[in-house]
């Protein structure tokens, strides 16, 4: 009885007007010290967690929204030390039984949970416990927002919690089957929406950033480049943009032939690299030439009446960058200011990771980049507060020496490997990396 009364009380709290509740909460917290504020936050999280036991779906949805806000505004390590398993279990229950909205919210909460705990046993438990319910939910016919949320979360929990390339490729295959299902006879697949295709390609490419060409299983990705090439002709601009980034990444990591083999029929006759001898380099070169032409056209596409100018300019810029990469080996460089420090990317892999995590974290991105050690390790980034005071007059070069493991060396090595791969591609496949060898590393 006590548990049910507590749940009813928590449900009543969550049923109250969101704006007035949030406003009064902020007013109270501004009057308290840091310790009291944290106690209040933990209490609200406890109430939201209890509300996830309620039968009413709208109550669970509000509770999940509260949990997401809490994990975006601060890293809830203290709360998770006590309630990690309970929160994961309840979120997975929402995945199994909830409405599309509840599933989307629960997916986001699980992704935030993984990013907060960082790599290790807890993150791996999140991945292993989530694989089956996520796979089942992705197979059900439902709205695009639910599928997109599941795909984003699957990408995040795999990125954080995988224990090897086999687990990463397992998740990538689950994603791929959303748009390319392996169907038995007499089963008709529904046509995925543009939003779902975009989500699949983005999540798949995000995980591909963690792989190298040598570790990929070619049997999993037969004809994937042909499929991606076909997506560049789609009407939806978001599909084309996500696809362009994925193709640039494939060429950056090398072993392009693993994405080009023929999928039809048996695997008999495949070479060690996973392609049929009759295809070989001429087949790859033909695909590459087609893609370069598509990229060139998209980099100079004229806008129609229905084209939003901002989206069109974004597409042109992206495909100009991709064309420069294909023809000259140049990777785009980006800089994001975080708390007075610059987070820089110098490869397609880094850019895709940064953009994906920014989209997923939304308003919590800056907070996590300042305080989340897992993300510091991912990007080799150390926030300003970790440096010595300004009175010590640390130079930019000295600051870089403090950054998490060998970020400058890693970027230089990435650039060198990119150029070496381009040169190798050029020798094997013809004119692809013009003048790459003339640059200095």
Automatic annotation (TrEMBL):
<protein>
    <recommendedName>
        <fullName>Interferon-related developmental regulator 1</fullName>
    </recommendedName>
</protein>
<dbReference type="InterPro" id="IPR006921">
    <property type="entry name" value="Interferon-rel_develop_reg_C"/>
</dbReference>
<dbReference type="Pfam" id="PF04836">
    <property type="entry name" value="IFRD_C"/>
</dbReference>
<feature type="region of interest" description="Disordered">
    <location>
        <begin position="1"/>
        <end position="33"/>
    </location>
</feature>
<feature type="domain" description="Interferon-related developmental regulator N-terminal">
    <location>
        <begin position="22"/>
        <end position="327"/>
    </location>
</feature>
<dbReference type="InterPro" id="IPR007701">
    <property type="entry name" value="Interferon-rel_develop_reg_N"/>
</dbReference>
<feature type="domain" description="Interferon-related developmental regulator C-terminal">
    <location>
        <begin position="372"/>
        <end position="424"/>
    </location>
</feature>
<dbReference type="InterPro" id="IPR039777">
    <property type="entry name" value="IFRD"/>
</dbReference>
<dbReference type="Pfam" id="PF05004">
    <property type="entry name" value="IFRD"/>
</dbReference>
């Amino acid at each position: 009885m006590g548990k049910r009364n507590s749940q009813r009380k928590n449900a009543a709290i969550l049923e109250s007007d969101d704006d007035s509740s949030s406003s009064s909460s902020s007013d109270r917290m501004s009057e308290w010290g840091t310790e009291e504020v944290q106690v209040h936050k933990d209490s609200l999280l406890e109430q939201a967690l209890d509300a996830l036991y309620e039968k009413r779906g709208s109550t669970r949805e509000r509770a999940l929204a509260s949990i997401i806000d809490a994990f975006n505004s601060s890293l809830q390590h203290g709360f998770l030390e006590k309630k990690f398993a309970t929160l994961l279990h309840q979120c997975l229950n929402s995945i199994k039984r909830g409405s599309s909205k509840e599933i989307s919210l629960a997916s986001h909460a699980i992704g935030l949970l993984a990013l907060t705990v960082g790599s290790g046993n807890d993150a791996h438990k999140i991945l292993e416990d989530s694989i089956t319910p996520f796979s089942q939910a992705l197979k059900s016919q439902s709205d695009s927002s639910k599928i997109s949320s599941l795909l984003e979360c699957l990408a995040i929990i795999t990125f954080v919690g995988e224990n090897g390339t086999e687990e990463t490729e397992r998740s990538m295959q689950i994603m791929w089957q959303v748009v390319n299902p392996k169907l038995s006879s007499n089963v008709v697949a529904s046509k995925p929406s543009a939003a779902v295709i975009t989500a699949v390609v983005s999540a798949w490419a995000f995980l591909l950033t963690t792989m190298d060409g040598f570790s990929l299983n070619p049997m999993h990705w037969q004809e994937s480049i042909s499929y991606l090439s076909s997506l560049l002709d789609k009407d939806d601009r978001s599909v084309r943009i996500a696809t362009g980034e994925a193709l640039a990444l494939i060429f950056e990591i090398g072993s392009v032939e693993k994405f080009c083999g023929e999928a039809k029929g048996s695997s008999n006759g495949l070479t060690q690299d996973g392609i049929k001898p009759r295809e070989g380099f001429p087949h790859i070169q033909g695909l590459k030439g087609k893609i370069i032409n598509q990229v060139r056209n998209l980099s100079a596409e004229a806008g129609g009446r229905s084209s939003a100018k901002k989206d069109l300019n974004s597409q042109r810029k992206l495909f100009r960058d991709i064309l420069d990469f294909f023809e000259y080996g140049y990777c785009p460089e980006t800089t994001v200011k975080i708390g007075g420090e610059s987070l820089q990317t110098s490869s397609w892999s880094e850019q895709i990771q940064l953009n994906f995590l920014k989209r997923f974290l939304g308003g919590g991105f800056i907070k996590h980049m300042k305080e989340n050690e897992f993300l510091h390790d991912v990007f080799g980034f150390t926030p300003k507060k970790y440096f010595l005071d300004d009175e010590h007059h640390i130079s930019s070069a000295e600051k870089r020496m403090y950054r998490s493991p060998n970020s400058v060396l890693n970027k230089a090595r990435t650039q060198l490997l990119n150029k070496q791969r381009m040169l190798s591609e050029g020798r094997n496949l013809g004119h692809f990396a013009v003048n790459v060898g003339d640059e200095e590393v």
